Amino acid sequence: ATPLEDMNLKKVQIPEVLLSAMARPYDVANLNRCGAVAAEVARLDAALGPDRDAAPSDGHRDAGSTAAGLMRGGAESVIPYRGLLRRLTGAASYQARVQDAVLAGAARRGYLKGLGMRMNCAPPAAPSWFRPAPPPPKPVVFRAPVRPSVQAPAPRPPAPRPAARSRPAPRALVIPLPSWWPGR
């Protein structure tokens, strides 16, 4: 944090996508297609930076951020009673809110990538290592040739009902299967 941020004169704006992630981290409204999930993940990537499963950067940006961190650390050490000043001006509580927004955004991005895996989506709607399964083959339908009939057969009379038994019929064994059971 810079001295201006310590005195709460300069605030980092929290992106709208992170504010909505704080309010509704598991919202799936309008996320019924892979394209919609990928678009939401892209919005979060723009606000948070690349995800941990993204390809590593070339290293130049990392060296620059290290130098900036050293400069920032030098500026922070100049201000006496920095912690007390941050508490009095409200900068500490605002920084905590920014950190909460970043954590909520990271959690939402992870949730959306899991949702994308469940929907069999390709990256970026799913983690970069995930490969979607190929779609099932379409069934082949054979149609028999239709021959015109000369005359429709006469309807059959109803079959006679069997006589009542003296013993009750054995009951079938019914085993309820959970909804997640394969083949249901």
Quick overview:
The chain has 6 helices and no strands.
Structure notes:
With 184 residues, the protein is an all-alpha fold. The protein is 43% helix and 0% strand. The chain has helices at residues 3-6, 16-23, 34-48, 60-76, 82-89, 91-118. α3 (34-48) runs antiparallel to α6 (91-118). The two termini are 56 Å apart. The relative contact order is 0.15. The model is unreliable at 62-71 (pLDDT under 50).
Biggest sheet details: none
Average pLDDT taken over every residue: 76
β-strand percent reads under 5%
Number of helices: 6
Structural class: mainly alpha
Helix content: 40-55%
- Terminal CA distance reads 56 Å
Which regions are unreliable across 5 or more consecutive residues at pLDDT < 50?
Answer: 62-71
How many strand segments?
Answer: 0
- String of helices and strands: HHHHHH
Shape: elongated
Rg measurement, Å: 32 Å
Looking at this protein, list some descriptive labels:
184 residues, mainly alpha
Topology record:
Blueprint lengths: L2 H4 L9 H8 L10 H15 L11 H17 L5 H8 L1 H28 L66
Helix pairs in contact: 2-6, 3-6
